[in-house]
């Protein structure tokens, strides 16, 4: 059984590598998984992944790849060679693209551990109106998330990024082993910032999220390690897990 600590991914949303590493140093020994998104990857370059790995962290590189199958495959091969633990693609790229991404990832990982490949379904910032009227997808967000999750599973992916509110639906359609990674997490009393549909860490785990992604409530705290420890304790107490 994976411990709660290993299921909390801290989003290091900084542009400068030095700032991200300073925050990571404060979290060493408390956090085990960090996320490098576009801001940090494009600002600091791929070497940031090696620096974080050298510090002992697992690294989720969140670049949401969406391109023709051959390019997605090459991108994943390059990312795998950096030693990443989790990467993602947009399910909207289709089954062939997702399958090519899987192939590239496995090729890049060689005989090493296989990184998890996760699909982005509908971004949590997308409303139903935008999806229907601008993107041109009919139906509800839930319908679309369900369809994309099924497609990702058929393409051989490990799971999806989804709102905690969609976890149940994804597990019902794709099985409990299909991984859900959920952002939009706020401990009680934390500043919500720009996140709209939020869930507490305790609630996210109790509804079945496999991994939760938390950024500012930890990284912007005066003492990030203490903030994270408090979250871990709360989840352990509420959910009776390790
Ligand atoms: O600071 P905060 O906890 O809001 O950070 C959440 C992280 O999760 C950010 O890096 C954000 O880009 C990412 N994310 C999200 N919603 C999605 C996908 C990713 O908030 N649907």
DSSP strand (E) fraction?
A: 15-25%
How many strand segments?
8
Backbone shape: globular
Strand order of the largest sheet: 1-2-3-4-5-6-7-8
Structural class: alpha/beta
Features:
242 residues; alpha/beta; eight-stranded parallel barrel; 45% helix; globular; binds cytidine-5'-monophosphate
Textual characterization of the structure:
By secondary structure, the chain is of the alpha/beta class. About 45% of the residues lie in helices and about 15% in strands. It has 11 helices and 8 strands. An 8-stranded parallel barrel has the order 1-2-3-4-5-6-7-8, surrounded by 6 helices. Helix 7 (about 140-155) packs across helix 8 (about 165-175). It binds cytidine-5'-monophosphate. Cytidine-5'-monophosphate binds near residues 13, 37, 184 and 215.
Outline the fold blueprint.
Blueprint (H helix, E strand, L loop, with lengths): L7 E4 L5 H11 L5 E5 H7 L2 H8 L3 E8 L3 H12 L5 E5 L4 H15 L6 E5 L7 H8 L5 H14 L4 E3 L5 H8 L4 E4 L18 H6 L4 E4 L1 H4 L4 H16 L3
Parallel strand pairs: 1-2, 1-8, 2-3, 3-4, 4-5, 5-6, 6-7, 7-8
The chain binds cytidine-5'-monophosphate (C5P).
Cytidine-5'-monophosphate binds next to β8.
Summarize the structure.
The protein has 242 residues and is of the alpha/beta class. It is 45% helix and 16% strand. The termini are close together.
């Amino acid at each position: 059984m994976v411990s709660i600590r290993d299921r909390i991914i801290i989003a290091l949303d900084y542009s400068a590598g030095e700032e991200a590493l300073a925050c990571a140093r404060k979290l060493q020994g408390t956090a085990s998984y960090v996320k490098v998104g576009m801001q940090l990857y494009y600002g600091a370059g791929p070497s940031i992944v090696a620096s974080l790995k050298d510090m002992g962290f697992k690294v989720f590189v969140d670049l949401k790849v969406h391109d023709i199958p051959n390019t997605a495959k090459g991108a994943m091969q390059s990312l795998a060679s950096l030693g990443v633990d989790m990467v993602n693609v947009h399910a909207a790229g289709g089954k062939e693209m997702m399958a090519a991404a899987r192939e590239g990832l496995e090729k890049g990982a060689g005989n090493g551990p296989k990184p998890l490949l996760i699909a982005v379904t509908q971004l949590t910032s997308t409303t139903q109106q935008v999806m229907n009227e601008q993107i041109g997808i009919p139906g509800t967000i839930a319908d679309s998330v369900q369809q994309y999750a099924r497609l990702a599973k058929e393409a051989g992916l490990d799971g999806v990024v989804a709102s905690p509110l969609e976890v149940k639906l994804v597990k019902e359609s794709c099985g409990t082993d299909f991984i859900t990674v959920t952002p939009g997490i706020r401990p009680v009393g934390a500043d919500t910032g720009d996140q709209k549909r939020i869930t507490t860490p305790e609630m996210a785990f109790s509804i079945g999220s496999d991994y939760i992604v938390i950024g500012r409530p930890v990284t912007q705290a005066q003492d990030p390690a203490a903030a994270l420890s408090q979250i871990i304790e709360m989840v352990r107490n509420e959910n009776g897990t390790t």
